[in-house]
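Deliverable D5.2: sample structural annotation.
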Amino acid sequence: MARAILFYPLMVGLLIALAILLAMPAYAQHPRTLQKPVSTDIVECGDEDTPASKSALVVSPSGLQARLRLQAKAIKAKNKEDRRCATTWTLMAGSRGAPLRIVFQEQRDDEWGNESSFEIEGWSEDSRFLLLSTATMAGDWDETTPVIYDAEKNKSYEIKLAPLFEAMTPKDCLLYFRPLGFNASNQVLLDVGDLNYDRAPGEKACFPESRWELDYIQKRVKRVSTRSVPQKFGIVAREK
């Protein structure tokens, strides 16, 4: 009888603890890999201004939240050839349950006819860093730039990649850059290669498809193994 009396409260305690764990949000238990980037719509300037495009809300392993906004507005001119496009890139972030606030915003003067998109690649496992990509496209050309947001310091780093590869890139060789996620040291992993997708059969790429690590503080890159696996965490929130 004494054993039964001792065993009963122990089982009740274990069942309560299990119920609490099951009721907790998934991102508080196990960080989940963000399966694919979360992006705004592709925007471009037209004769009429269009509303800003917003991304879905992405929640970090610790519950931080982030959303992107991208807007394009026409800069009109007397001659159609002189028209320009003003784009505004905005990251809003905040703690769970708190209002989102603007933590990064950039305005650009872009060519008329260019298309733009803004995407979240994922959070670092410790929820301190968020990797974003800005992309501007025209025909077969694109320029993709990583932006790293440090939530602890409330600071952002936007890194133009072409200058970092200039010394190792042949003349007239255009590169593509694809930010993938973070490594275990919270440096950014990139895929880099020849932007010319229309090479003739047997024509060698001007730059090999390869994986690189970006030190965004020192603005340095180094080649790493293609087996280096990027980490990118987050859950897309369900919104009403």
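Annotation notes: The longest strand covers residues 65-75. The CA atoms of residues 13 and 19 lie 10 Å apart.
The annotation will be released with the project's public dataset once the embargo ends.
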